[in-house]
Design a protein that fits this description.
about 300 residues, 10 helices, globular, binds nicotinamide-adenine-dinucleotide
Length: about 300
């Protein structure tokens, strides 16, 4: 839903990595999704994939029976704009799109990408009344990939050897890069990097999205699209990957009635389980502050819900 930069990039990676047999791009802009889909489909013979890619303008019937639906519809951040400022515009879009999806794909698992993502995920959950395992907000996968990239740059070691997660809200001030638990092939990164260097990596990660928005003039799409495709792969192909996702908490991490990033096992059912981390006092305090900020933003939904 939304064939813009992130939606189209996600479709491209799904096809290239052979994650799904069919992808439908839907957009509100007349002819836009059709054009993106046709352009992408014309790479199939060159790049060698068999995924069929169809584009439609607002025709939800074409999406009927979808297993997974990704919501990227909305407007992206402009330079200097916070994710929070997007709330008013994107809330109306996400609500109506989620309702339309379920009319035609009642069994779908919904992945929410539109910002402010934690609040949009909460909105989609409340608006649809779906069970909590079927609404998944994508933010932590992207923030973690940025975290691992900055760690690999600081360490001067291959990014694929770096492991680490970012939990908490998907916002410049609310995300929590877990530097204490990050590792270079299982060895704590603190063995190789000073506390100052680790703090710099965490700071760079937190403004990772804003850095790109400033450079590009709009928000990024390659890493967001790839992170969504990674999550969709774990759902469609029942991979049981551990991915930090924004999901509904019911007492976990000391929080209730909120969607916020925590590590989850993602399988064909959506959120199979939430992984409990043994946070230290400082990390738990950051998580509590992050939850308070997300909750504060959720209050703005009262006029929409
Ligand atoms: N969660 C994350 O990690 C993450 C990362 C990057 C971007 N985002 C967010 O994802 C969203 C999309 O970003 P983008 O860069 O692809 O923006 P974009 O402007 O390129 O694409 C958005 C598309 O949504 C379409 N759209 C608007 N209303 C619609 C509706 N009612 N139904 C269907 N389509 C509709 C627009 O026509 C547009 O083509 C933004 O809200 C952005 O902030 C989130």
């Amino acid at each position: 839903m939304g064939a813009g930069n992130v939606g189209a990039s996600c479709a491209e990676y799904i096809a290239l990595k052979r994650i799904a047999s069919k992808v439908v791009l839907l957009d509100i802009k007349e002819g836009f999704a059709e054009g993106k889909a046709l352009d992408l489909y014309q790479t199939a013979t060159t790049l060698g994939f068999n995924t069929s890619i169809e584009g439609v303008t607002n025709n939800y019937k074409a999406t009927a029976g979808s297993d997974v639906v990704v919501i990227t519809s909305g407007i992206p951040r402009k330079p200097g704009m916070t994710r929070e400022e997007l709330i008013g515009i994107n809330a109306g879009i996400v609500k109506s799109v989620s309702e339309n999806i379920l009319e035609h794909s009642p069994e779908a698992i919904i992945v929410v990408v539109s910002n402010p993502m934690d609040t949009m995920t909460y909105l989609a959950l409340k608006a649809t009344g779906l069970p909590k395992n079927r609404i998944i907000g994508m933010g932590g996968a992207l923030d973690s990939s940025r975290f691992k990239t900055y760690l690999s740059l600081a360490l001067q070691k291959p990014a694929n050897d770096i492991h680490g997660m970012v939990i908490g809200g998907h916002g410049d001030t609310t995300m929590i890069p877990l530097t204490r638990l990050a590792s270079y092939n299982g060895v704590p990164v603190s063995q190789f990097l000073s506390q100052t260097a680790l703090e710099q990596v965490a700071a760079d990660t937190m403004v990772g999205g804003a850095t790109l928005t400033k450079l590009l003039g709009t928000s990024a799409w390659y890493a967001p699209g790839a992170s969504v495709a990674y999550l969709v792969d774990s759902i469609l192909n029942d991979q049981k990957r551990m991915i930090p996702c924004s999901v509904y908490l019911d007492g976990e991490y000391g929080q209730n009635d909120i969607c916020i990033g925590v590590p989850c096992i993602i399988d064909a059912s959506g959120v199979a389980s939430i992984v409990s981390l043994d946070l230290n006092a400082a990390e738990q305090e950051k998580f509590n502050q992050s939850a308070a900020a997300v909750r504060n933003m959720n209050d703005a939904l009262q006029t929409v819900l």
